Structures are given as structure tokens and as C-alpha cells.
Amino acid sequence: MRVVLLQDVSGVGKAGEVKEVADGYGRNFLLPKRLAEFASPSLLKRVEEQHQAQARRQLLADAELVSLAQTLEGLEVAVKAMVGAQNRLFGAITSSDIAEGIHRLTGQDIDKRKIELEEPIHFLGEYEVLVRLSKELLPKIKVIVEEEKG
Length: 150
Known about the structure:
There is one protein chain. By secondary structure, the chain is an alpha+beta fold. It has 2 domains: about 1-65, Ribosomal Protein L9, domain 1; about 70-145, Roll (Ribosomal Protein L9, domain 2), CATH 3.10.430. Helices cover about 35% and strands about 30% of the residues. The strands form 3 sheets. Strands 4-9-8-6 form a 4-stranded mixed sheet, covered by helices on one side. Strands 2-1-3 form a 3-stranded antiparallel sheet, covered by helices on one side. A two-stranded antiparallel ribbon has the order 5-7. The chain is elongated.
């Protein structure tokens, strides 16, 4: 029996997929619990249209990410902090501080979890930091930690 899954079913597939299942499993479990519908030609056409719409949305989202990566590549973010002895900061510069700096410069909201900072920055200087937008998009930004006056 050919069915279109309406919800994710473990061991069978994800919502929107067309699957071939045993007749009894489909009739006695999937259909009564509204986990799937019988794969009629009209339903198959509607599912295909939904897949195409999802693919178009994904292409637009990917294009936006590429544009954002080009904006971020080589960006210099200056962060000011209070400094103590031997150019050591009072506190530290974290990924959220860097995300705020990016927002100030570009107006783009970057999730602090996407900023790959091995450990917080504790000293003045320049640092190269990666921003993981996706698996392939890893723009590098330069973080410049400066002394805050007064």
C-alpha cells in the first residue's frame, strides 16, 4: 500500500514522504491514527507542489546566507574593554560581545552560538574569529580589542 505520511513515523519516514508500507500496517495503524493518507493522484500532486515550494524557500534562504557571508568576510569589529595590569582585561570578551559589535556595524543579528570562539578573549589585540553560518559558509572576521578610556 502506498501512503503519504502526515507526521514523522519512526522506522517509516518523515512527514510529506511517499512510502510503500504493508497493507495491514497502513489500514490498521497509519490511516486510523491519521499518521498517513492513502496516496491518491491528487494528494501526490499536492505533495510534489509542497516539495517544490520548500525547495524555492531553501534557495532563497541560501542566497541570503551567501550575501550575509560576503558582508561579514573581512569585517573588523572593534570591542572596547577595561584593562588592568599587563594588558589583561577586567572580565572577558565573549561571543555575545562580538555579536553585538557585528549588529552595530551591519545591522544583522547573528546568533552568538554561531561565533566560533574557542575561549573568551582576556587580552588586548587582534583576533581572527570564524562565524559559522552553515557547514560551507565560514566567513572570518577580525576582532580588535581596544582599551576603554575613562
